[in-house]
Amino acid sequence: MGAQAYRAVSVRQAPRVWLNRPRMFQPLSLFVGLRYVRSRTRKFFVSFITWVSLVGVCVGVAALIVILSVMNGFEGQLRDRLLALSTHARVIAAEPGFAGSGAAAPSAGDWQAVQAQLAEAPAVRGVAPYIELQALAVRAPEMLPLLLRGIDPKLEPRVSQAATAVIDGRLADLTPGANRVILGSAVARLLGVQRGDTVTVLIPGLNASGTPEPRLREFQVAGLFEIGLHDHDATMGLVHLQDLKDLTADDPRAYGLHLRFADAMSASAEAAALAPQLSAGLAIRDWTQDHANYFRAIRIEKTMMAIILMLIVGVAAFNIVAMLVMVVTDKRTDIAILRTFGAAPRSVLGIFLTQGLVIGWAGVLLGVLLGVAVALNVGSIVPAIERLFGFHIMDPSVFYITAIPSELRWSQVGTIGISALLLTSLATVYPAIRATRVAPAEALRYE
Length: 447
Prior knowledge:
Layout: H1 2-8, H2 28-38, H3 44-86, E1 89-93, H4 110-119, E2 124-139, E3 142-151, H5 162-165, E4 166-168, E5 180-184, H6 185-191, E6 198-203, E7 215-225, H7 230-233, E8 236-240, H8 241-245, E9 255-261, H9 267-274, E10 282-286, H10 287-290, H11 292-330, H12 332-340, H13 345-376, H14 378-389, H15 410-427, H16 429-436, H17 440-444
Parallel strand pairs: 3-8, 5-7
Antiparallel strand pairs: 1-9, 1-10, 2-3, 2-6, 2-9, 4-7, 5-8, 6-7
Helix pairs in contact: 1-12, 2-13, 3-11, 3-13, 3-15, 11-13, 11-15, 11-16, 13-15, 13-16
């Protein structure tokens, strides 16, 4: 009986006295399952599939953590650059469809009262007026669409990073009556202008009779700014608020207020709380509404990437199924002997569940550790790879972002780990159930 039990747990190379050690008092399923994991089988293919399964789970989990962390980093970079000149929220004249749009929009003078009211709100960290007009920048032979934004150079730093974005000149160079403009670096490059040159700006409009009457104004280029985002650098010019006020034709839709809160991520909630305090004819929009398409696209990409990379873990889970099925086939005689000596089907089920779970969960744990380590050190790993192979992953001549950013979110790590654990756990169920259906008489017939 001792020899047969010894054979059942596949410890043929161990001395018989090993069976009398206290560890035999552990639960049978756990003891035998762990022994199967540690034992060196004579079947190379089974052992190979075991290692492939473990490595596959590890690589899949690590790749998922690293890729999502890098995408989080790019999302953060995009958010910061969008908010450099866009601010957290803006108050504008209500359009049809907004609550209160039936009321008349405030006149140009009323905006000062609205600005003072919002400045006293506890959630607001900064308020600054602005004017925006669509225009055409003309410098023969080029003609480009341009968004002219009138700002107050003294108040603008409270709501945006315009002052730090200026790479040639100063924001303070925008003085009232001087007709100066600070252009985006891409606009200046396309127009072929530099600091000190003049640009003609054409603003479409209508006269009293309703016929088109464009307004022309020459602006002197007082500097250049660069955010690192095409939507700003290639489409925008900054002028003084007073210089642009004459070109608005007192259209209240051109006026607005920029708001800044303590935290950009809470802008939606803060803007919703301020909305009831606004007078009729005004509406508030936060940055998540203005740039919804950008972040919706990123969210879709992250979801699809997570599904694709999770398939790697799925393939590794199928390898676990194949490996355990082969182990069950190889251990039919051992299973039959255990069943003959009174082992319940539940014990046999536990043996192979233990083996599969140890392999799958070890792969998940190693994958989490590897993924977190790589995600936290992407900033050092990528430059080392670039130096080693002599190329740039993000070519500075093509991309605004030249470094690979990474933002590890522990909530995502937990979700990935739990999902992988569940997937690998499910992979062990069928082979373990199949092991309980081994008929002892059939398995021992030719033994």
